[in-house]
Amino acid sequence: MVKNSHQPFIMEITVVSAQGLKNSSSSTLFSHRLRPFITLSTAPPYSCRLINEDKHSHVYKTRVDDEGGLNPTWGDKFQLPIDATFLYQRHSCIYLQLYTKRLMVGQTQLGWCQIPAADIADGLLPLGSVRHLSYRLREKDGSRGHGVVNIAVKLQGSLPVVCPQRPLKSDLTVLPEMGLCQTVIGIPVTMLQAGGW
């Protein structure tokens, strides 16, 4: 058992950029311009439920990039208060969703991914070091989507000495009406050295 596992610490996530996005609009009138933004949360989207999930998780949102089009950049930083148990539970993830803001229909989802806690914790010792990760986006049904999202993660605070191990599989439970939760998500596509973006 890990001592002080409920002691809070800060996970700083910088949503750096995305690349290779595809405009999913079928209307030629509104398809000329993407206005992408990203949301982050430690609780799953409404279609997935984890065992003992925190139903009061905050959703963080980047600004809308009006200029980047298919290759947007943000550089927005978010500080997520998290206790150490987040890093040690096999099913803990950051849920990232990419949207575009449409003039007439509001927001439309372009893709999503899960960032497993094991990917975040792996290589973050000593505390304060930055980990750069890139993830391929997924379609609503979990199939391979268009584009890659780039993030940087840093942990601040004091953590237990025990090092988490990468989980062998996810313990996601799928609601019967939706088939969106699959273990094929959250796979890093590249890992860059610090300053690689």
From TrEMBL:
InterPro entries: C2_dom (IPR000008), C2_domain_sf (IPR035892), C2_SRC2/BAP (IPR044750). SUPFAM superfamilies: C2 domain (Calcium/lipid-binding domain, CaLB). It comes from Davidia involucrata. Pfam families: C2. Residues 1-132 form the C2 domain. This is C2 domain-containing protein. One of its GO terms (biological process) is defense response. Transmembrane segments: none annotated. It comes from the Eukaryota.
